[in-house]
Amino acid sequence: MKIGIALGSGGARGSAHTGVLNVLDREGIPVSVVSGSSIGALIGAAHAVGLPVKQVEREWLVTDTHRLFRSFLPTFPRAGLSSGTELKKILTDVLGEVRIEDLPIPYAAVACDIDTGETVVLKDGSLVAAVRASTAIPGIFQPVRRNGRLLIDGGLVDPVPVRTCRDLGADFVIAVDITPRPVPTTQRGRNVWDRIGEQLRDGLTHQTWIPNSLTELLESIFPERPERPLPGLYSILNQSISILVQEILRQKLAAHPPDLLIRPDLSLSIMSYLQAREGIEAGERAAEAALPELRRLLAQRRRRRIDRTPRA
Questions:
Q1: Please, which residues have CB within 8 angstroms of residue 264's CB and are 6 or more apart in sequence?
Q2: Which residues contact residue 158 at a Cβ distance below 8 angstroms, ignoring those fewer than 6 apart?
Q3: Closest Cα partner for 138 from 245, 45, 243?
Q4: Cβ(150)–Cβ(113) under 8 Å?
Q5: Which residue of 47, 74, 258, 311 has the fewest CB atoms within a 10 Å radius of its CB?
Q6: Over the stretch 202-259, which tens digit does the pLDDT of each residue have?
Q7: Residue 248 gets which letter from DSSP?
Q8: Measured in whole angstroms, how far is the alpha carbon of residue 85 from the centre of its chain?
Q9: Would you list the DSSP string of 153-182?
Q10: Where is mean pLDDT largest: 188-192, 225-229, 288-292?
Q11: pTM score, two decimals?
């Protein structure tokens, strides 16, 4: 039975993928088919090449400001902030110059055709080029040219590519979802200035010598605000993207459900590359919690295969 893993998009939250693979490796659960979108394509490529999980973990943990700047080095080409040339060099250093069809296990990266919105499955050719295409964040990295197409981040069309994993030959698919989910944009109640105003009003208005005019002035400057404050522009845009991705993912998983879905509990943003340890540990916790169900499902699947085996 071939166990496959579909690794989802999510930027820096991808460190959790390493935590999940760490647990599977430790428990002796072989992953012999890999598909990935965006950061999932990168982590999946490292596994498909045969890099030890601990080495991938070290790559996460040695990431610093200098390395981040080099990866996202602004070159201001026409189609994005960065041409991706430096990122390609880093990927080549880590993955080597190999072709997907020469990998020891089946692998595919998912990208998106920016002209048509179609899902493009990359399962041959340069591994580094495939990863670059799948991780080409719109507006950050310029699109990657391939066979007349312009390819961008695969997370736009298939955040957790379960179907691709099955198409590669996986009999049992573990999906790892690290996509950010919508969260409250603002907290209910007053902000810091409201609290200061409240303290001033309460403190001064209890003094009988304060004239009514000053009390009215304080109330006009610091009015009571029982309703929630409006979120900022960044929060609104970020939340909108999360909502869109979650809706795409919901439809994809409904159409092509995995055998097991692992969702690490992450508070990291998609740009929290300097907090990899937190992401790795979250992935480990989620995988460990899923182990009993994983073992039960694998045992069940094996029993079915035995029962279907013709007897002499």
A1: 13, 16, 19, 20, 176, 178, 279, 282, 283, 285, 286
A2: 37, 110, 119, 164, 248, 252
A3: 245
A4: yes
A5: 311
A6: 554 444 444 556 556 656 665 655 567 787 787 888 888 889 999 999 999 999 999 9
A7: H
A8: 22
A9: EGGGT-SS-HHHHHHTT-SEEEEE--PPPP
A10: 288-292
A11: 0.82
pLDDT value at residue 205: 46
Q: Which residues are catalytic?
A: 38, 153
**Distances from the Cα of 195 to the Cαs of 83, 204, 221, in angstroms?**
47, 14, 12
String of b and e for 12-22 (b: at least 16 CB within 10 Å)?
bbbbbbbbbbb
Match 């580094």 to its residue by tokens: 128
Quick check: 174 and 23 in contact, CB under 8 A? no
Structure tokens at 53: 């999980």
For helices 39-49 and 127-134, the axis angle rounded to 10 degrees is 160
Q: Are 37 and 154 in contact (CB under 8 A)?
A: yes
Amino acid (1-letter code) at residue 68: L
Handedness of CA 54, 56, 60, 61 (dihedral sign): positive
CA neighbours closer than 13 Å in the CB half-sphere of residue 74: 3
Q: Are 153 and 11 in contact (CB under 8 A)?
A: no
The predicted pLDDT at position 210 comes to 46
- Examine the pLDDT at 184 and tell me if it is beyond 80: no
> Tokens representing 4?
């496959």
